[in-house]
Structures
1.
Amino acid sequence: MKRREFIKNAGIAAVGGAAATTTLAAPAIAQQRIEMVIVSTWPRDFPGLGTGAQRLSQRIQDVSDGRIQTQYFAAGERVGAFDVFDEVASGNAQAYHAADYYWKGKHPGFAYFTSVPFGLTENEMGAWINFMGGQELWDELSAEFGLKAYAAGNTGVQMGGWFNKEINSAEDFKGLKIRMPGLGGDVMAKLGASPVSLPGGQIYENLVSGAIDATEWVGPWNDYFLKFYEAAKYYYWPGMHEPGGYDAFGMNKTWFDNLTKSDQALIQACCLMENDMMMAEFNANNGRYLSKLINEHGVALREFNDDVYDAFGEAAEEVFSEARAHSDLANRIHESFAAARADVGGWMKLSEGAYYRQRNRVLGL
């Protein structure tokens, strides 16, 4: 064959091949379009938690070049804040963004994957979940309810809460009506308080009306926008109940399992990014808004004393014993968590803990 004829024929073949590829690829791309309804427990545009969930929803769509089409619904827009678990488990929606300790009534093990009293900080949680068996236990638990979850946000060490009176001893909790979910609420009950679980959008009205006497939420940035300072004067720290509150991106497991491996990895990567972004955003804002609460609104900052914290610790051990007795899985989750707390916590004491103490001493912080 002459060189000119070879080039001509090769060109025809290349065009034909490209046309064939285009013909085959177009329907395949169209079939890959995925609809993803996301429901959450947070109010629309609420700083940190709400905006982080919305940011994650948009990121999944953007990273997939629009192939995964997300529809985001804040609390109350599609279902109630505490109805998102059943909405996703049933397949009516594909995913939720929430704090998994809201589902401790379904299984106490869920509390560990948000935060528990005397639990893990954000750094320690990351170690446990990603490298010490935490994700595998979370998968086992979630699968029992038809779900698959990833960490998708963290709020760090939370404040102890807002109170309409000073807390000087464990006796001061008796008869107190306090909004505190998760196992932290169970600790309050051991001390004689009456814990209730309310979604964020309902806390202020209950605090103002006197339906509750105290509440915890997150920290200065979030609490400032919820205007708790209008109803409670005393702001206590540090919170024993949530030292590293993870948010969960829980997905319908059947839906998730039917995705390609690359789409599963895409969603996981987006969740991991939001996990870092949200924590950074809370750290960037909490100090500034704490100053505003104190200087602009006269909030009285108080630290729980050692006697109160000792009472928290004793009550927490009772709560953990009850959680472990629930089932073999609950016991295994606790044992894994406790091992990580001892191992990673021991290292953090020598590393970050010691550094913070010495740095702040030298700089007078």
2.
Amino acid sequence: MSRPAGNTRLKAARMAAGYNSQQALADAITKAAPKLGIRGLAVGVRQVRRWESATPPWPQPDVHRVLTHLLGQSMEDLGFTPPWGVERRQPETTAGHSSHRRLSGTRLASVPAQSATATQPASIGSDFEAITRSHRHLYWSVAPATLHPAVMEHARLGCALLPETANPTRRILAAALAESYLLAGRIEFFDLRQPDQASDTLLRALQAAGEADDSLLGSAVLAHMAFIPGWAGDRDAAVERMVAARAYARREDASSELWAWLDAVEAECETRCGNSRTALQLISHAEDTLAAGSERPTPVWMDWFSPVRLAAFKGNTQLKAGHYPQARESLGQVLNDLPPTSDKQRTVILGDLAAVEAADNRPEEACRYATQALDQLAITWYATGMDRVREVRRTLTPWQNEQCVRDLDDRLYDWGTTVSALQR
């Protein structure tokens, strides 16, 4: 018998904001109130538990103010129903209008709760899931700026259908919706370098995973959310989200591949925050986890990780740690082992190999790898790969009068590459 889902919207927003327990949110509300000019307000864990129940009571005005301040969403978006009722959002009639709203920074609609009656057939879940699966496959070859609008419109369709379904179809639909939002968030963060928009989209993915009661999807979403502060150098926020991701993974006994990937994500965050030794320890633990294996299957949607990808994480960490011979060996092996469909990852590996050669005072080799990365980017755009090339060019400043660096500049700043980069 499945347990009641409760107010999954508030749970998702709490976890995304870094409050890993109900007590942590209660303490944060009590602490934030005086800063907002509210005196004498104290909230206990029992109250937060009531808010996260299936029928959350509408908070008092002062609590309302602090709660929306901390979590950055309206009360309706947090799963509360006001005593005076709630108006239905008007649907967006054209794709152009919805695109304008998205690009102008308007917050995405929350994942809706279940309605009183189900009007969609049982097949709607598998039908919606089939399109989500196709988008997952298309990600590896379709230009991100082309695929992203299609994924977002598909997610909006899922939000419209979700209130019209009942379990078990609802759980199937919600899980596919969570995966769609996760894919959109991945595109926004890794391909388009829009971390703020990715944060908002990933929060919707977490809400949908909560509606599906899919802890493994929730773990994957939270780990992706850790990348955002991790890449910005905010270690505390990244670690908090990784703690939450591991807690979710334990609920369904995750596969060895998922556990190893969580180590790899945390390792990259630690590397970005300057803690290479800790990162290498996490990579070593991930290698041991993969070697041990497990009987649990890896979710079909987790197609972004493999032993080769773990070696890529390792090579980057070795590079940042200054272990250049080891990084050269690891990354060179990855380049040989990458499957033909991993063109996006190939640009990152080529960029890291270029960085190794630049750090080892070999500018000609660095320029050769960087040029290969640019050749691949001309075929398959990947903002993270371009970031790697630009980082390498900055390190080549001592050799900027060398012919190889001038040739790289001609390639890096030709008409097509410059316009393409600025467009994105």
3.
Amino acid sequence: MSGPRLALLTALTMLAFAANSILNRLAVGAELIDPMGFALVRVVSGALMLVLLAVAQHRALPMLARGRGVGALSLSLYLIGFSIAYVHLDAGIGALILFGLVQITMFAGAVIGAERVTPLRWTGAGVAFAGLAWLLWPAGSLQVPWVGAGAMALAGVGWGLYSLAGRKSADPLSATAANFLWAVPICAVVPMLLPAQIDGVPMTGAGIALAVLSGAVTSGLGYALWYHVLPRLQAAVAGLVQLSVPVIAVLGGAVLLAEPASLRTLGAGAVVLGGIALGLWPRQRRIGSSGS
């Protein structure tokens, strides 16, 4: 695959990830569909799309593979927390919290797994955490709702655990299809256990259409495209390019949803992203020096 084509496909993947935040906020924030309904329609649509892709490529679905329970539960935690959070959060702020917690969770996984953590990576994690604290600390006109922030933090932990669980997957596409299939009944049952006020919003055609678009296209096809380009990217590059997603979501939320992009939001986002980039820098330098 040529360099320009790889760059284009990678950019399209990041746009798909950011679009999930915008689509969810557009549907749930405007009360076109309730958050649990959005999560369920999204996971069903994503499962159908991924299963079709796996079947078309003659791949088996490892429904009972080792670690499938962790993958399905963490994916469900991400989907449910993600949807609930966007009742309260703007698209850009939600993406900042999500990807900040994803990186912190994966950083913690590296520590627990006894991976070597350099001082610069410790520093980067601390800077990223400080940026999140700045973003969430009540001040002035920007008051981040703790319900939304908490739900998105859980979503970030869920996606981080899901990513950690999938690092050893021999066939990421088939594994993701199996996880989505298992997540369908989980996302169907969880609403029965949540407070009644979480629901109560009627499903509209527009809300369902946005959820299907998020599930089948920006989640299903987006994840498949990511798996296609991921083997061709250096590990550090793959991590760094994902840091563009919150920035895209902030800009998309400002343009498409008329959400305010305050200096504090932009500043906190820059600190979070800068800290994560700082933490990833040693790996990038080692890869570059190895000539790979």
4.
Amino acid sequence: MTAHPLAALGRPHRADALIAGGGLAGGLLLWLLGLQGGPPLFGLPSALTLVSLTVMSAAELLRRTAPVAALVLGIPALALDICTGTLVATVLMFTDLIYAAVLYGSPAAARRIPFHCVLLTVLSTIVLTALWHDPQVLMLCIAIAVGTLTPAWTGVIIRNHRDAAQAARLRAEQTALLAEMDRRQAVTGERTRMARELHDMVANHLSAIAIHSTAAQSIDDPAATREALGVIRENSVQGLAEMRRLIGLLRDPKAPGGGDEPAATPTLDGLDTLITQARASGASSGLTFTLDDARRADGAEMSPRMAAPVELAAYRIVQESLTNALKHAAPGEVRVRVDHDHGVALTVTVSSPFGERPGPRAPGSGAGLVGMRERIALLGGAFEAGPGNGPDGRVWLVRAEMPVPEEDRRPEEKRP
């Protein structure tokens, strides 16, 4: 709880009103029964103790809305009460004001009031002991300590527990908020990954289908039409297989029909198949395709294996680059080179003839380059794509470099 604004001073808390009313009624009853703590001092009339009782009750109405002001108002009321006979109800309400000032007051008041209570108790003990050499003075000093220190430190303890509980609630809310943010980021990241994977898998086959279906419609040659339809069928079957693989990755293995075996992830060993498909799809456009896999040292048939994320990213880079070449490249040779730099970085380079075309051979979404950049960025690599100069003239060059740390390499690739 915190102190309410001054605008709320006219509307005391219900509990404060009950405490004030009960203290006033109890004090009046004690005064009518003559149950006062002692005779009035300095010749003051005993009826003045009702004035201090009334002021103390009014201060109780402010114990929650203005606790420090209520305590300041209660100090002279207590002094008047002591001088006019001392009603126990007035003293008890004053101790409650000390407790409320510590509990509901500002942090500065909660620090200073207990210190002042200790100082008041010590000074009162010293002064009373010096003035009156009487054993009853010790009891009076104990009463002062109980009436000031006990409510002050009780308020400190309860306030500390309240602040700790509030801090714990805030931490719990922050933890829940961070968890929700992490969940949303995870969902967004997974949707982005799925969109990138779906684009890279399907775009290649659909582009080939679009190109050859256009050729089949425009060329009045039965042999060319049959060849185009064969390429269309092959790409349709392969695209369907890729879609099934993706669905297998997304489906819960425990769900009915989900299957127990994980779907295979494409690797660089499938580059030969990609090049073969590209040759079949690009033959009618005057495109030729070559693969230079520098990882195959000494004429080895199989290339060294790397971590699955690296191989998948490299495979998708080549696949998307070949798709873009089928759509945009001028007639000529498309070169694909894969190089492994001493087991430290994997580099994929794809160059295709760059020419001025009125438009692509097949429509595209424009998300290919974005997806390739995202894949390389996730691996902490470098990616660049754009026109450049090659041995045979202007080319469109795609270059991706992916780090392959020692701990991420597959066991068969690590050096002894």
